Amino acid sequence: MSNVPPNGEWSERVGRLQEKLASAGMAGCLVTQNVGIYYFSGSMQAGYVFVPAVGEPTFYVRRSLVRALEESKIRTTELLSFRAFGEQLRADYPQSFPAAEAGERPLVGSDLDVMPAQLYLKLGEVVPGARIVDASTLLRTVRSVKSAYEIGRISEAAEVVAAALEEGLAALKSGMTELELMAIIELGTRRRGHIGLMRMRGYNQEIMTGIVSAGEAAAEPSYFDGPAGGRGLSPTSPKSVSRRPIGRDEPILLDLGCCIDGYVIDQTRTAVIGQLSPELEAAYRVSEAIIRQTERSLRPGATPEQLYVQALDAAAEAGLAGNFMGFGKDQVKFLGHGIGLEIDEWPVLARGFRDPLEPGMTLAVEPKFTFPGQGVVGIENTYLVTENGFRTLTKSPERLLAL
Amino acid sequence: MSNVPPNGEWSERVGRLQEKLASAGMAGCLVTQNVGIYYFSGSMQAGYVFVPAVGEPTFYVRRSLVRALEESKIRTTELLSFRAFGEQLRADYPQSFPAAEAGERPLVGSDLDVMPAQLYLKLGEVVPGARIVDASTLLRTVRSVKSAYEIGRISEAAEVVAAALEEGLAALKSGMTELELMAIIELGTRRRGHIGLMRMRGYNQEIMTGIVSAGEAAAEPSYFDGPAGGRGLSPTSPKSVSRRPIGRDEPILLDLGCCIDGYVIDQTRTAVIGQLSPELEAAYRVSEAIIRQTERSLRPGATPEQLYVQALDAAAEAGLAGNFMGFGKDQVKFLGHGIGLEIDEWPVLARGFRDPLEPGMTLAVEPKFTFPGQGVVGIENTYLVTENGFRTLTKSPERLLAL
């Protein structure tokens, strides 16, 4: 699979957004976030992309125009100044941005889930003739279905993280700290082109290469919007690795990913030096059973909510409802998530997500069980929804890694 | 210097914000960003910190309450639900959040430069009795003056990056790619406790460990809000390292930092395998002269604007105005920046920053020159402003590293 996007990639993306804009009665969409700007233009330089409901989109570039002109696949022009941006939009798209006196005020969508409030308020001043409304649902829905090019990039990220995990496992020994093990795995992903972080849309959420955490440290709860947090290095980095040495006979959570050419993979394996207690081993087997059950249902037409609810039922039947996807107040209410340019894409395998799965969606499914004082066990694969079922994108062998 | 904050650290921080709130006529400040939440509470769990103009602050925690209760230095309580958050605030702080019918609508500041617009709009609905206004200027001003504890953390980060740079230089050889060199330096910072990224406040800005870039690749412009960008790995990571091999006789820009216990350091050294052309070597000497000139002025009372303007003058006198801090349209309009929990703190050494420097401010000063097709040369140190002058926090020896 080539890592150069084919002709048509960008017009296809723009076209799918335009269909949704028309259905939603929006005159267009102003995209302000770097990831969205790249998705619709092919360039991640600083500026704004405007996609009208009908017609050609434009990338207004603040910096670097030189570079955006090389990279962008859509009409690209200089953003003259923020103050003049309203006039520039009005000249280029008079139907979306009429003069304030016109009085009709068309709806213009934007990525209000990520755009800072300060920018939102300033935009309202420069385009008084339009009403800026939240289009994040539309944007996330458009991005939830991946092209062949995008699936290729996620697959490449899967190869990279699998190779780095092998290097980490080869070096793993009792007494090594979580941080030391993670540093080896990160070296492996970085050398192969990991950009250094996995982009995450959620406010205040951060993830670089995932979580390596063992024993009771892995079971420590955290702000992080995932089933496991980890102790972390300090209150200023309160998740993932700590300086705790990894011991024998405790579960080692290896929840790892990387970002290659902008696209993210996410996978989890559980390892142990020695052997797990019967209770934890049994819970690991339940996570395997849940991921197999999920695979059997994973096809177009199934709903994310159904996948989540049947996993909850399976955990409850195994007597592990209280340990599933975190513990106590710190349980998260999902089984998995869409993945692509960001790690927290749509759909979420959670209640409320009732639109059926479609071919081209990519999902990380991560049944995990938390035992305070003991650790976290579980498994996570990234899948592609196909016409008839699914394809596993994760490349690492799937087993309890007893060393 | 202990890495445990002393008693009084948090009440001092809260007190300084309260003074500013009172002067600004604000009833309080709602802090929503993870870095700000940590700054005022000692914990970075998910939730909101409210600091009233008078009285005790509260940390309302969404997740993990268990962990926030262990870490937080201020009153900490569960955030019951976002819908009920308005009532919770009204009950705890009736003067800041009166019922909507009361009609007075006190001003409540918030971090609108980072808070997503969607959250801003929802907050407006749950606290109809208050007017949420931008307090980012206040928050950034309070944070610009560091405590002894904070200076200790930045100094520790300086030790870590200096050690990692030594490891990178020991491994550097002609033909190695920028990415390979960076991976070695990152391994060095990570093993010593770098959290993996340097937090940056600016929207759409990202920096993990800095920039390693050589020759013409370093001179490629980028969206990044700094004097040098670098080619990067792809249009989805369009700055810092590329897979270009590092050659002989070209400038190697080593603009590096790390984040230890939440605090960031930032420094730049220029290296060369062989020797620089006379033109680039002369420009490097001008960057040294500008940093010496800046040091002579670096004391309480000097203004950031003065430091910037005199650097501009020095660059112009050397005939390098067009190469200073980037090239052409891609020049940035500053000489340096505050640094602490974030890499882009206040004050910025730029026009418009006319409030005099104060003891306790920490500043990265980074005179650099860009030569398209040839590379970037320059130097950067992080300084503490003291009662009588400055102290250099950067630990790496300062010279043109000819290898």
Automatic annotation (TrEMBL), chains A, B:
Domain (Creatinase N-terminal): residue spans on this chain:
13-145
Q: Which residues form the Peptidase M24 domain?
A: 154-387
Which segments carry the region annotation Disordered? 225-245
Give the protein's recorded name: M24 family metallopeptidase
The protein's organism comes out as Cohnella cellulosilytica
Question: What does UniProt list as this organism's lineage?
Answer: Bacteria, Bacillati, Bacillota, Bacilli, Bacillales
